[in-house]
Amino acid sequence: MLAGYPPFCGDDPYETYHQILGGDLQFPHNLDHFTIDIIKQLLQPDPTRRLGASTITGTKDVMGHTFSLSLSLSLSLSLSLSL
């Protein structure tokens, strides 16, 4: 959604399926490093290595990612400025 198109988009469902399995992601040039990193980690083909997959620290891992921290800071600033 950040890019304006789905992360995997083949000419047919079979091609899309293979893109998903291979983790073949293409990103627009306007996305920053932290955004690309969290997307890659969330869409990791191996579910055991996926960001947030740990049953012990899953949510904390996602919320502790630099992208999430910057998003929280931006949201906090915009809420405080609108008050």
TrEMBL record:
<keyword id="KW-0418">Kinase</keyword>
<keyword id="KW-0067">ATP-binding</keyword>
<dbReference type="InterPro" id="IPR011009">
    <property type="entry name" value="Kinase-like_dom_sf"/>
</dbReference>
<keyword id="KW-0808">Transferase</keyword>
<dbReference type="GO" id="GO:0005952">
    <property type="term" value="C:cAMP-dependent protein kinase complex"/>
</dbReference>
<protein>
    <recommendedName>
        <fullName>Protein kinase domain-containing protein</fullName>
    </recommendedName>
</protein>
<keyword id="KW-0547">Nucleotide-binding</keyword>
<dbReference type="GO" id="GO:0005524">
    <property type="term" value="F:ATP binding"/>
</dbReference>
<keyword id="KW-0723">Serine/threonine-protein kinase</keyword>
<dbReference type="GO" id="GO:0004691">
    <property type="term" value="F:cAMP-dependent protein kinase activity"/>
</dbReference>
